[in-house]
Each structure stands twice: as C-alpha cells, then as structure tokens.
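Dear support,

Our group has been running a series of protein-ligand predictions, and this particular one with zinc ion is the one our PI (initials K.S.) wants archived with full inputs and outputs. We had some confusion internally about which version of the output was final, so please treat the block below as the authoritative record. The input we submitted was:
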Amino acid sequence: MTVIPDIPRERLPSLLALMPKAELHIHIEGSLEPELIFRLAARNGVALPYASVEALRAAYAFTDLQSFLDIYYAGASVLLKEQDFFDMAWAYFERAAADKVVHAELFFDPQTHTDRGVPMQTVIMGLAHACRRAHAEFGLSARLILCFLRHLSEASAFQTLEQALPWREHFVGVGLDSSERGHPPEKFERVFARCRELGLHVVAHAGEEGPPAYIESALDVLKVERIDHGVRCVESPALVQRLARERMPLTVCPLSNVKLCVFPTLAQHNLPALLDAGLCATINSDDPAYFGGYINQNFLQTFAALPQLGAAQAHRLAMNSFEASFATAAEKARWAAQLDEAFAEAART
Ligand code: ADE
Ligand code: ZN
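Confirmed final output from the archive:
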C-alpha cells in the first residue's frame, strides 16, 4: 500500500494543479468557448441568436440538464468543417496539457452534427487529427468515445454506429448521453450489445438526474465498464456496496453538478462520501466551457469547498483516473510512478 507523504494544506492547490491525471468525462462539444463559437460562426457564415460573446455567456444560467442541453446543441451548430472539429479539440488539448492531463478520453456526439448534414468523416477525422497532434506535441494520449444521444431513437443510434464503422480504428468505445429522465438504458440494449460484439468499450451516463435504477440497468442491461456521473447511487446503499465491490468507476463532474443543480453547492457535494465508501470515483470537467472550469478548476474548487478532502484523496482520485481509463497496463504503471514522484516532490519543497 502506497504511503502518501504528509503535505501541508497550503501546498495542496499547487499539488492538485501539478499532479498528473487522466480526464475521462469531457464532451468535446462542451469545450467550445464562446469566443471560438463566434470565430467559427464568422468563418462559416452561421448566424447566432446572440449579439456578442458576453451575451452568449450571460445565457449560461442553467436550471437543470435540459436547459443546458438546449444551449449546448445550439452552440455546436457552428461546427461544419474538419478544421472546425480540429480547432475545437486542439483548444481543449492545450488547456488539458497545461492542467497536467496525461491521458484524455473524449466524448463526441456525432448525431448533433450528422443530423445537420455534416458527414461523419468530417467529425471523426477532425477530432482524430487533433488527438494525434496532442500525442506528438504534448505526449498526451487521447482516445475518442462515440456517444449516442439518448433522446433519439434506437434506430438512429444503429444508423450512427453503421455510419461510424468505416472509421472504427479512430474510436475506442461508445457512450450514452443527453436527456436522462424518461430515456432509460434499456432503450439501447441491442445497440450496446452490438457495440460489445465489435470489441468497443462501453460507458453510459446514469444517475446524474436519473434514479439509481438507471445505474443498475446501465450495469445489468448495457454491461457498461464505467458510469458517467452516478452520484445518485447514494440513494441505494446496496448499489453503493455493489459499485465498491465491483470497483466500477464513476466519472464525477463537481462543477457540472452544481451548475445543473444536482447539488446546491460544492460544499454539499457527495464526493467525500463516495470516496469513503471505497468507490473508484474520479474528477472530470464534463462541459468546461459551460460550467466554469476545466479539470484543475474542478479539483481546486472542490477541495477548497470540502475540508474532508486532502492529499490522500488527491492521490486516490488521480490513481482512480488511471485505473478507470482504457489505457494499457504499462501506461497506467508509468503514470502511477509519475504521480508518486509529484507527491514526493511536493513533500520535499
Ligand atoms: N451532454 C453533454 N453534457 C452532458 C451531461 N452532463 N449529461 C448528459 N448529457 C450531456
Ligand atoms: Zn457528461
């Protein structure tokens, strides 16, 4: 068992910022900053219903998941060309590298684009080129996860999978996102079974706004390898025990949860309880351009709001992010060693 060096609380912010970490829950369309939305709109001749960057940002006051999704899908309407998808992902990678992200698994929502007539190839190749360059320039390993929009039909998900298969080598898995309530995992049982047959990793959003029963069916029906969000699991102690026993990762997004009113404040977030229950919880940014911060801001603000979280929890969260990733055992071992070195360095200085 790793002994975590004693780190005084005042050194925690720099340790959180400098420690290596993996980001496993980032919707790349949710990294589209208002400035880039306006730049792409001008480049592509797309009219926006907002007069300025400030007016758009002022509209980012959400009451629930749906109120966010409406504006998020509208923002993505400026993405038309392969270069647009590249530019969006590259802007994310520059920020991620600065935040000491060594590995990122990016969600993308092809239906948001193909339903507007953008070819699947344009979406995937723009993102894939940015992933390749992130590795070349920053040594950051990046993977893509194709998400099905759960408010659309099973038939649309199957069609999306078919359209993406010529670019199968460029994505490692599939996920399930968008409006959770009223769209239970069962709706996608057959398409997820097909994805598993194809050797794709499978994850799903569950228990963000939806009930613990949706987490159970994501596990039992979709047979997912990670739960995205999952914070409502605490409403079922038996489910919490199961998640701990199975070491089922939860990709938790604290700033998102507050912005979408899942928790009233960060100080009331249940991340400490999830860690105390032995769950493989991780910290992620979800849609950083909309929720007020990238991954390091999620770490910094969450730790500042919750005094129960200290150096041991920081180490645990980073280790969990490597464990929960779809990277190789050799990569995970290398990042774990880098993490221990960052803690040893923080203890020395
Ligand atoms: N799509 C982008 N962000 C999402 C979230 N937090 N929940 C569900 N779908 C999403
Ligand atoms: Zn999400």
